[in-house]
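Notes to self after the Tuesday call (sharing in case useful).
The group wants a holo model before anyone commits to mutagenesis around the pocket. I volunteered. Ligand is NAP. Logging inputs and output together so the record is complete.
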Amino acid sequence: MCNTRFEGKTAVVTGAARGIGYQCARQLAAGGATVVLVDVLEDALRQAADKLQAECGRAALTCAADVTDEAAVEKLLDEAAEKTGRLDILINNAGITRDDLLLRMDARMWDLVMAVNLKGTFLMTKHAARHMLRQRYGRIVNLASVSGLVGNPGQANYSASKAGVVGFTRTVARELAKRGITCNAVAPGFIKTDMTDVLPEKAKEMALAAIPMQRMGTAEEVARVVAFLASDEAAYVTGHVLPVDGGMAP
Ligand code: NAP
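Result:
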């Protein structure tokens, strides 16, 4: 798995303590990047950093922060750039669900999902871009979702937030293209992580039935595509949304 495609680069990954975020961090570290793991819980972060060290032989920096807190976001990105001398790659992976049918969904569930999935992506991107613009180099990869492309009953808030991530990605790509910064998104389908483990069996059966490949994806399968978009192999790709979904999206 080890290679040198991210040697000398600094990468920040949000929601990196587990699931897809951890696997993204692993791909980047295995490619030689200095990785900054961002998540809300200090303990979970420390465990993830230990695991990364054991699996890739690389020490990661950790930062406990909530991506919805602008002051914390600005501080963590400034510190990451100061400590490592650069800020090359941002993976906006932190995301949550608060599922319910439209008429049962209260405004709090709506606001919370929008805050983490959409505002968090905006804040991280805005403050990372300041550093990337100075370097005239950057790779931003956002985690959207098939739900944001085609909709999904019970996920009005989540689908709207991920559709927002798609529009945000396309706009940021156009704004920053002249400065050597790319911005793309991946849209995972149904991936086996803690987020989907909690779904009722009935919901899992229905989701499986909608996947042409007839299996859930793995976090590593998503992370490999994220790593491609973060690498120089994808230098001429920007403003795109790549489904990683076993054929689910039309
Ligand atoms: P996950 O297992 O639930 O992990 C998400 C991580 O994000 C957790 O460690 C979580 O911390 C952290 N997080 C949540 N809110 C945060 C905040 N405000 N600030 C910083 N970190 C925060 O999720 P996943 O399944 O790996 O999903 C990762 C991304 O892929 C999400 O954006 C998700 O929407 C997207 N996605 C996933 C699937 C899927 O099938 N799994 C499909 C499509 C898209 P806590 O431990 O404190 O909650």
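Two things stood out.
The mean pLDDT is 97.
The CA atoms of residues 170 and 239 lie 4 Å apart.
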